[in-house]
Specification:
The complex is a heterodimer.
Chain A: H1 2-20, E1 23-24, H2 29-44, H3 62-66, E2 69-70, H4 82-104, E3 107-109, E4 115-117, H5 125-152, H6 159-172, E5 179-182, E6 185-188
Parallel strand pairs in A: 1-2, 3-5
Antiparallel strand pairs in A: 3-4, 5-6
Chain B: E1 2-15, E2 21-33, E3 42-47, E4 50-53, E5 57-70, E6 73-89, E7 95-109, E8 114-124, E9 128-137, E10 140-149, H1 152-159, E11 176-190, E12 193-202, E13 206-208, E14 211-213, E15 216-224, E16 228-238, E17 241-250, E18 255-265, H2 266-277, E19 285-299, E20 302-317, E21 323-339, H3 340-345, E22 348-363, E23 366-369, E24 375-385, E25 388-398, E26 402-411, E27 420-431, H4 432-442, E28 453-467, E29 471-485, E30 492-507, E31 524-533, E32 536-548, E33 551-554, E34 558-562, E35 565-575, E36 583-594, E37 607-619, E38 622-624, E39 629-633, E40 636-646, E41 654-665, H5 666-673, E42 681-692, E43 695-705, E44 714-716, H6 717-728, H7 738-741, E45 746-748, E46 751-759, E47 762-767, E48 769-771, E49 774-779, E50 788-789, E51 796-798, H8 799-810
Antiparallel strand pairs in B: 1-2, 2-3, 2-4, 3-5, 4-5, 5-6, 6-7, 7-8, 8-9, 9-10, 10-11, 11-12, 12-15, 13-14, 15-16, 16-17, 17-18, 18-19, 19-20, 20-21, 21-22, 22-23, 22-24, 24-25, 25-26, 26-27, 27-28, 28-29, 29-30, 30-31, 31-32, 32-33, 32-34, 33-35, 34-35, 35-36, 36-37, 37-38, 37-39, 38-40, ...
The chains are: A alpha/beta, B mainly beta.
Chain lengths: ~190, ~800
C-alpha cells in the first residue's frame, strides 16, 4: 500500500514537473534575441564588449530548466545570410543618418520600434522632407529585415514575434537622451 | 365680495407716423373683489373689434386678459390673444397668411411706467414658436425670446414665394432653436422706427445643404426707415471668429449684406471648416491669417454672392507631418449669380479664381517652393443642381511646371471616386525635368541630380469620362526631346520622342485587347536616339506602341545588344501600367551571349548562352522566367533554368537560378581560375542559387567526374592545395603533404566528387565518393595518385571563412563585405 502511494506521488511529481515545461518547437526566440542584439548594436554603433547585459541572457540556471525550453529542427541556428546582411547594412546606414535627429529630439523610437518624427522644431521644410524620407526608409528596411530574419529562422509566419523582439531592443539600446514612445506617450531616455 | 363683471370698457389706440392706425385695442369686461382672498380686484377683459396693423403683420385679434389690481402695480395674470388668418408681410408682393396665438402673464408698474410680459408664448401654424419675456418702459425696451423652428418645411411653405427658390434645397434637416434678444433705450420706438440692439444665437449647430453650420451668434441694430430694415453693426460670430458689416432688407423683398473680417486666425477657423465640409482633415493643424470679404445681394429675383479670401503666412500639417506647408499666401475669389427662376431649376453661374504666389509645401518627402513656382488658376461653371456643374472651364498656370486647361461637366456627390464627370483636360509645356527633380530630391536619387536626370517637355490632351461606377481616360500623351541620364554614366537615354494615343480605364471592368484588335489610329510611336546601359546599347531605335484598356503594347520586336550578343524582346506588353498590379510580359530570346563579358576580377569566364526564355513576366513582386538558356561553359554543355527575381524593384532583390553543366573541361576551368592544373571532365549541378546584394544567399552545388570517360585525370599539387584550403581551411603544407611536392608535380585521380550546401551563411562540404566508410573529395586510382579525404563530414564553414578561403585560393585582395 505504501509502495503504491509512493508511486502515485512520484507520478504526480513527474506530472507537475512536466507541466512546468513548455516546449516551443517553432520559434527560436533566444537565437533571434541574440541576433537582434547584434544587429541593433551594430546599427547604433555600440561596442558589444562594453554592453553590460551581454551574456547574461544565455547563462543557464536551475530556473531555466523549469522555464520554456526550445527545440529546433536544426541543431545550429544561424539567422544571417546575404539578404539579411545587406538589409542590416541598410538599417545601419539609415540609423546613422537619423542619429542627429535622434539627438536633437526631432525623431524618436516609436513603440513599434520604428523611427518616427515627433517634433519638427528647428527643422526647415526641406529637412522635414528628408526626415520623412528617412523615417519611411527605416520602416521599409526594418520590415524587410524582420521578414528575412523570420525566414532565416525557418518561421516565416513569425514576423510579428521578430518585430516585437526588435522593437524592445531599438528602445533599450538607443542612446541616452533619445525620445522613446510607450503606452503613456513620449519620454526622454 | 364686490362684483361688477360688466360695463368696463377700455380702448387703446396707437397710430403710425402718417396717422394711420397701428394698434387699436378695445377691451370690455368687468371686475370682482373678494377682500377675504387677500388679492386685489380681479378684472377680466375681452378683446372686442380689435385690429392690429404693424409693418410685419396685421389682422383682427381676439382674446382676453385677466388683470389684478394691487397696490403699486397692475398684475397681468393671464393673457390670451389669437389672430386668425393674420397677414404676414415679407416685402411688397410677398404676403402670406398664418394663424397666431399669444399667451402670457406679466405686470404693469405705474411708478416706473413699465410693462412686463413674462412667460410669453407666440405659436403659429407655420412651424414656428416663440417663448420668452418682453419689457417696455419710458427708459427702454428689452425682449428675450427663444425661437423654435420646429418644422422648417412648414415655415418654408408658409413663406411661399418670399423664400428664394434656391433656399428650398437648403432647408435645415431638423428643428432649429434660436435665442433672440432685443434691447433699446427711451428712443427704442422712435418716429423713425426701431432703435434697438438685437441678437440671435444658434446654440446648437444645424446641417444646411449637407454642411454643418456651427453654433453662431448674430447681433445688429435694426432700423426701420419706411423703405425697409437696415441691420447696422451686424456681427456674425462663430467659434471665436467674427465677421462684421451690415444688411438691408427692403420692403420690396430685396436683401443686401456686406460682411468682412480681417486677421482671422486659421487656428480657429480650420476646425470649423473641417466640421462644416466633412473633409478628412480632423487631426491636421493649421495656422495663419485670413481676411474675408463677402457680399450677398438679392434683388428683383436675382441672388448674387461673392467672397474674397486672402491667406497670409499660412501653414498646415498632417498628424504625421508628411503633408505640410508654411509661409503660404493665397487669394481665392468666388462669385455666384442666380435668378429665382434659375434657382428653381438650377443654372446659376459660379466663378472662382485662385492665386498662390508664395510659400513652401511638402508632400511626403517631396518639397516644392511656390515662390519659385507660383500657381494661378481660374474657373467658371454653371450650377444646375445642388452638386451639378455644367459648362465648366478652368485654367491652371503653374510657373515652370506647366499649364493646363479643362472643360466639361461634373456631378459632385458622394466620395470623390463616385463623382460623375465628363471633361477635356489639356496640359502643355509640362517640364519633365522639373517634375523629375522634385521626385529625385524626395527619394535622394543623387545619381540623377544636378546635370543628370530627366529633360524634355510633355503635353497631355485627355478626355475624362466618369459615370460614378466607371471611369476612363482617352487622348494623347506627347513627349519631345526626352532624356534620362545618370551621373555615373550607368544609364543614358537621349532623344526620346513619344506620340502615344491613350485609352485607359481608371475604374470599372476592363476588356483586355490582343494587339491584333488594336485599331491603326490607336497606335502611336516612340523613338530614342540612344539607349545605353552597361552591356546594352541601342541607337536610333523606334517602335510603334499603344495604350489600350489597360495594356501598353510595343508593336515591333526590340533587339538589345547584350554581352556581345543579342537579346530579342517580342510581344512586349505591360498590363495595368499605372497600378500596383503592373505586370510586364515579353517573349525573350537570347543569341550569342558571351559570358567572358561578365568577367570581373581574377576569374575570366568562358562560354556562351542562347535560348528561348519563353514569356517572361515582371511585376513589382517578382520576375519569372519559364524557359531555359543553353550554351557552353568551359567546354561543357550548360543549361540555365528556374531564373527568377524576388522583389525586383527593391534593394534587397533576390536573383535565383539553377545551372547544370555536363562534361566541363576542368583544365580550362582550373587554368582560368589559376588554382592549379586539373585535367578531366566534370558534371556540375548548381541548384537553387539565390543571390542578394551580389552575394549568394543559398545554393546546392554537386560536382562529380563525368561518367567513365576516357580522358586524362590528373591534379596538380597546387590544385590539391587549393581544394584543401577550400575544404579544410588549411593548405597541404600545413598537413605535411608538402614533403612530397618536390617529387610529384601532378597526381592522377580516379574520381572527384563533392557537394557544397550554403544555407544561412553556413557552408557544408561533403565528399561524394564513399569507399570503406571513408568520404573522399578526390579518390586515387588503384595504384598511384592522391586521395583527398573529408575527415570531418559535419564541418560547418561560416560564410566569412569561406570567403577568406576563396580569396586565398584565387589570390584576391580582401574586399569589404558588409557583416561577413
Amino acid at each position: 500500500m505504501m509502495n503504491k502511494c509512493m508511486k502515485i506521488m512520484a507520478a504526480l511529481a513527474l506530472l507537475l514537473t512536466a507541466a512546468c515545461v513548455t516546449v516551443n518547437i517553432y520559434f527560436p526566440a533566444a537565437e533571434v534575441q541574440k541576433d537582434a542584439e547584434r544587429v541593433v548594436k551594430q546599427a547604433y554603433g555600440i561596442d558589444e564588449e562594453k554592453t553590460p547585459a551581454e551574456g547574461s541572457w544565455l547563462r543557464p540556471g536551475l530556473l531555466d530548466l523549469l522555464g520554456p525550453q526550445t527545440a529546433h529542427a536544426q541543431d545550429y541556428v544561424n539567422l544571417s545570410n546575404a539578404t539579411t546582411r545587406g538589409l542590416e547594412q541598410q538599417v545601419t546606414d539609415i540609423t546613422r543618418q537619423l542619429a542627429p535627429y535622434f539627438k536633437s529630439g526631432n525623431v524618436g523610437i516609436a513603440a513599434d520600434g520604428y523611427a518616427a518624427l515627433r517634433d519638427k522644431g528647428g527643422l526647415d521644410m526641406k529637412q522635414v522632407g528628408q526626415v520623412n524620407r528617412l523615417v519611411a526608409s527605416d520602416r521599409q528596411a526594418k520590415s524587410a529585415l524582420y521578414q528575412e530574419k523570420a525566414k532565416a529562422a525557418g518561421t516565416p509566419d513569425k514576423v510579428g514575434e521578430v518585430q516585437d523582439i526588435y522593437a524592445k531592443l531599438w528602445q533599450k539600446h538607443a542612446a541616452s537622451g533619445t525620445w522613446v514612445q510607450s503606452g503613456s506617450g513620449w519620454s526622454q531616455k | 365680495m364686490v362684483k361688477a363683471d360688466k360695463g368696463l370698457f377700455v380702448s387703446l389706440a396707437a397710430n403710425h407716423a402718417d396717422g394711420l392706425p397701428l394698434l387699436n385695442l378695445a377691451l370690455e369686461g368687468g371686475c370682482t373683489f373678494d377682500p377675504a382672498s387677500g388679492q386685489g380686484p380681479l378684472c377680466r377683459m375681452t378683446l372686442r373689434d380689435t385690429h392690429i396693423d404693424t409693418p410685419m403683420f396685421s389682422g383682427p385679434a381676439k382674446g382676453y386678459v385677466l388683470l389684478e389690481l394691487s397696490p403699486g402695480k397692475l398684475l397681468l395674470r393671464e393673457l390670451s390673444m389669437t389672430m386668425r388668418h393674420a397677414r404676414l408681410s415679407l416685402g411688397r408682393g410677398h404676403e402670406q397668411f398664418v394663424n397666431l396665438t399669444l399667451t402670457g402673464s406679466g405686470e404693469y408698474l405705474p411708478a416706473r411706467g413699465e410693462w412686463r410680459l413674462d412667460k410669453a408664448t407666440l405659436t403659429t401654424d407655420a412651424g414656428l414658436a416663440l417663448s420668452g419675456f418682453l419689457s417696455m418702459s419710458p427708459q427702454g425696451f428689452a425682449a428675450r425670446f427663444a425661437l423654435n423652428l420646429h418644422d422648417p418645411v412648414k415655415l418654408a411653405a408658409a413663406l411661399g414665394s418670399a423664400l428664394v427658390d434656391a433656399a428650398w434645397g437648403n432647408l435645415p434637416a431638423g428643428p432649429v432653436v434660436l435665442d433672440l434678444s432685443a434691447e433699446g433705450g427711451p428712443d427704442a420706438f422712435g418716429p423713425l422706427g426701431l432703435n434697438v440692439t438685437t441678437t440671435a444665437t444658434l446654440r446648437e449647430g444645424v446641417r444646411l445643404s449637407g454642411v454643418d453650420v456651427p453654433p453662431l451668434r448674430l447681433s445688429a441694430r435694426p432700423k426701420f426707415d419706411g423703405e425697409g430694415w437696415l441691420l447696422r453693426n451686424l456681427v456674425v460670430s462663430a467659434l471665436g471668429v467674427s465677421l462684421g458689416g451690415e444688411m438691408r432688407l427692403d420692403n420690396a423683398g430685396g436683401l443686401r449684406a456686406d460682411l468682412s473680417g480681417r486677421g482671422l486666425r486659421l487656428e480657429s477657423i480650420a476646425p470649423t471648416a473641417q466640421r462644416m465640409t466633412g473633409l478628412p482633415f480632423a487631426d491636421w493643424a493649421a495656422a495663419g491669417g485670413l481676411d474675408v470679404a463677402a457680399n450677398i445681394i438679392f434683388t428683383k429675383g436675382r441672388l448674387s454672392a461673392s467672397a474674397d479670401l486672402s491667406l497670409h503666412d499660412a501653414a498646415y500639417m498632417s498628424p504625421m507631418a508628411d503633408y505640410m506647408a508654411q509661409g503660404l499666401s493665397a487669394r481665392l475669389k468666388l462669385t455666384s449669380n442666380q435668378t429665382a427662376a434659375q434657382g428653381h431649376r438650377g443654372g446659376h453661374k459660379v466663378r472662382a479664381s485662385l492665386e498662390v504666389p508664395g510659400g513652401e509645401v511638402l508632400f511626403g518627402a517631396a518639397y516644392l517652393s511656390l515662390a519659385k513656382h507660383p500657381l494661378a488658376a481660374s474657373g467658371a461653371a454653371v450650377q444646375t443642381g445642388q452638386s451639378r456643374y455644367e459648362d465648366i472651364t478652368a485654367t491652371l498656370d503653374w510657373k515652370g511646371l506647366g499649364q493646363a486647361e479643362a472643360a466639361g461637366e461634373l456631378t459632385a456627390t458622394g466620395p470623390l471616386a463616385q463623382w460623375q464627370c465628363r471633361a477635356e483636360l489639356a496640359a502643355s509645356e509640362v517640364d519633365l525635368g522639373r517634375w523629375f527633380d522634385i521626385g529625385a530630391d524626395a527619394m535622394a536619387l543623387k545619381n540623377f541630380q544636378g546635370d543628370a536626370g530627366v529633360e524634355g517637355q510633355a503635353a497631355l490632351d485627355l478626355f475624362l469620362d466618369a459615370d460614378g461606377e466607371n471611369a476612363s481616360l482617352s487622348g494623347q500623351l506627347t513627349i519631345d526631346g526626352g532624356s534620362l541620364t545618370a551621373k555615373d554614366d550607368s544609364l543614358e537615354v537621349r532623344g526620346v520622342e513619344l506620340r502615344l494615343p491613350v485609352s485607359y480605364r481608371l475604374r470599372g471592368p476592363v476588356v483586355n485587347l490582343s494587339p491584333q484588335y488594336v485599331s491603326p489610329k490607336q497606335w502611336g510611336s516612340v523613338r530614342a536616339g540612344l539607349v545605353r546601359v552597361p552591356g546594352v546599347l541601342l541607337s536610333d531605335a523606334a517602335t510603334q506602341l499603344a495604350l489600350v484598356p489597360n495594356r501598353l503594347f510595343i508593336r515591333e520586336k526590340v533587339d538589345l545588344s547584350v554581352l556581345g550578343g543579342m537579346v530579342r524582346l517580342s510581344s512586349l506588353q505591360c498590363d495595368q501600367p499605372f497600378s500596383e498590379r503592373m505586370e510586364v510580359r515579353a517573349g525573350v530570346r537570347l543569341r550569342g551571349l558571351d559570358l567572358a563579358e561578365l568577367t570581373t576580377g581574377a576569374f575570366p569566364l568562358q562560354g556562351s548562352l542562347e535560348g528561348n526564355l519563353g514569356t517572361v513576366r515582371l511585376s513589382r513582386k517578382a520576375l519569372v522566367v519559364p524557359g531555359t538558356a543553353r550554351g557552353s561553359f568551359f567546354g561543357g554543355e550548360a543549361l540555365v533554368e528556374a531564373i527568377h527575381v524576388d522583389d525586383p524593384f527593391r534593394r534587397h532583390r533576390r536573383v535565383g537560378f539553377s545551372v547544370s553543366v555536363r562534361e566541363m573541361d576542368l583544365e580550362r576551368l582550373s587554368t582560368a581560375m589559376d588554382v592549379g592544373r586539373v585535367t578531366g571532365r566534370m558534371d556540375l549541378d548548381l541548384h537553387d542559387v539565390l543571390l542578394a546584394y551580389g552575394q549568394p544567399v543559398g545554393m546546392l552545388l554537386r560536382a562529380e567526374t563525368s561518367g567513365e570517360g576516357d580522358f586524362e585525370k590528373s591534379v596538380s599539387i597546387k590544385a590539391v592545395n587549393s581544394l584543401s584550403v577550400i575544404g579544410t581551411g588549411s593548405g597541404i603544407g600545413d598537413l605535411g603533404v608538402g614533403l612530397f611536392a618536390g617529387f610529384f608535380e601532378e597526381f592522377s585521380y580516379d574520381r572527384i566528387g563533392f557537394q557544397c550546401v550554403l544555407n544561412n551563411d553556413i557552408f557544408r562540404v561533403r565528399g561524394l565518393v564513399r569507399d570503406g566508410g571513408v568520404e573522399y573529395l578526390i579518390k586515387k586510382p588503384f595504384l598511384t595518385g592522391i586521395n583527398v579525404v573529408n575527415s570531418n563530414p559535419n564541418n560547418n564553414i561560416s560564410f566569412k571563412d569561406m570567403l577568406e578561403r576563396v580569396r586565398r585560393v584565387l589570390g584576391e585582395k580582401p574586399r569589404s563585405v558588409p557583416g561577413a
